[in-house]
Amino acid sequence: MNIKNFYNTAEWAVEYALKSGASEASAYIGNVKSLNVTLVNEEVEKLQESNQNSLTLNLYCSNRYSSHSTNDLRKKSLEKFIEEAVKMTNYLAKDEARTLPDKKYYPGTDIMSINLEISDSSYDSIDFKDKFRMIQEIYKSIKGKSDKIINVNSYYNDSTSRGVRIHSNGFKGESERTSYSLYVSVSVSDPNGGKPSAGEGCVARFMNELLNPEVLANKALERTLGKIGQKKIDSGVYKMLVENRVGWGVTGKLFGAMGGRALQQKNSYLEGMLGKKVASEKLTITDDPFIKRGLASRHFDNEGLAAQKKEIISDGILNYFYIDNYYGKKLNMEPYTGSSSNLIYKTGNKSLEDLIKMIDKGIFVTDFIGGNFNSTTGDYSNGIAGYYIENGEIKFPVNEMNISGNAKDLWANLLEVGNDPYLYSSNRTPCFLFDKIDFSGK
Q: In this structure, is residue 36 part of a structural domain?
């Protein structure tokens, strides 16, 4: 199907839903093509290619709501699918907040005309041999570099998606995007026992923006060899330096409490904190959906709400919650969006090396391992791995330790923000340095 056919089918599906008894309806029709390749050392473990069309239909039947999906886009099949979906929806309980968004929240031509550069036009012309050669290069570049290497797992993924969204109250929009990713995981033998592993990866909208496979592989090997000799240290209160690539381990403790659902169900420790301080003045976060080639750039969200650039937190002050159409009605709040796009952090002027030198006794966290977070209270607990720092120098690797505390205290104790945002994520966190973090070890 081409875009014109997508529009025709989506418009027909919405019209047929209304004829079948729905009060309002929205339809998304799209196509996703993807390739996944996994190598273990030099052997192919997985080679999977897919090409799939799908329809997602959202129905509103006198404030009764349901969502339905199918991959069968034949008209006869869709007629039965839509008729049955409407019948089922009419059995659900009413909820006055279940309606399509007001048309005033949909994007205008000023937003829709912005070129986000999120689709690589060369996607279909890239030869599979070139992709396969790239993933092969990962293992070849570190083969034999250490006698401690056990396995090298290499992963390549790419995808292209395009689709259209139609709402019965007037919204029309289309999107097209590509994504490429490389990841490598290396495991090694530790003379003291154990088989530590670590990885390195990158994601980009355009294939030529991926890291060189040799660079990626050597970073992963260096990271893994650095874990040899891991041990626990004494429990205590230490400074904590969080590596930029694992920043979601701490920022998730903010964003996990900023959604409309958590607020409406009284499950957010940030309730009542709009316009108030929720973090150190070192923290400023902007949600920017208009970054060219950004991994979460968009013109509109999955409800058709117009993308907006917002400074979510300014010098520690909370400015916005993530409120979608449904919870906006429930909370009597203006909808913005229910999901984040590209998160950009105001950086400081210190490098990772500078931050390490600032630490008398602390732990450089390079991995968060599982854990729990209570969005109602802000309490958290996470396993971590990383390196012990003393007098401004990394001394040895640590693991099997935990951090615990409350998110309010965590962010109040943010000392510094690094100058190194992680660019291979929509959450572009720099390094963060925190004070007074409880670590449990031996």
A: no
pLDDT at 441 over 90: no
For the chain, how long is the longest CA-to-CA vector?
73
Residues 107 and 132 in one domain: no
Cα gap 281→422, rounded to integer Å: 21
Residue 205: count other Cβ atoms within 10 Å of its Cβ: 19
Distance (Å, whole) CA 336 – CA 169: 19
pLDDT in tens, 398-416: 999 999 999 999 999 999 9
3-state helix vs strand vs coil in the chain, percent to 5? 25, 40, 35
Task: Decide if 386 is inside a domain.
Answer: yes
Q: Pairing state of beta strands 149-167 and 236-242?
A: unpaired
User: Do 247 and 432 meet the contact criterion of CB atoms below 8 Å apart?
Assistant: yes
Residue 46 lies in a domain: no
> How do residues 304-323 score in pLDDT, each as one tens digit?
999 999 999 999 999 999 99
Same domain membership, residue 291 and residue 154: no
DSSP 248-314: HHHHHHHHTT-BHHHHHTT--TTTT-TTSB-S-TT--EEE-TT-TT-TT--SB-TT-PBP--EEEEE
Q: What confidence tens digit (pLDDT) does each residue in 81-137 have?
A: 999 999 999 999 999 999 999 999 999 999 999 999 999 999 999 999 999 999 999
User: Are the C-beta atoms of residues 139 and 42 closer than 8 Å to each other?
Assistant: yes
Q: Are residues 407 and 262 in the same domain?
A: yes
Strands 172-188 and 317-318, by their bridges, are unpaired
Q: Determine the Cα–Cα distance for residues 59 and 27; give it in Å rounded to an integer.
A: 9
Query: What is the DSSP code string of 139-162?
Result: HHHHTTS-TTEEEEEEEEEEEEEE
Residue 178 is part of which domain span? 123-225
Number of structural domains (the chain) is: 3
**CATH number, domain with residue 10:** 3.30.2290.10
State the average pLDDT over residues 219-239.
95
Find all residues with CB under 8 Å of 43, minimum gap 6, and list them: none
The answer to whether the beta carbons of residues 52 and 84 sit under 8 Å apart is no
Asked whether residue 203 falls in the same domain as residue 155, the answer is yes
- Do 220 and 364 fall within a single domain? no
pTM listed for this prediction: 0.95
- pLDDT classification of 192: cutoffs 50, 70, 90: confident
396 and 272 in a common domain = yes
CA–CA dist 312, 310 (Å, integer): 6
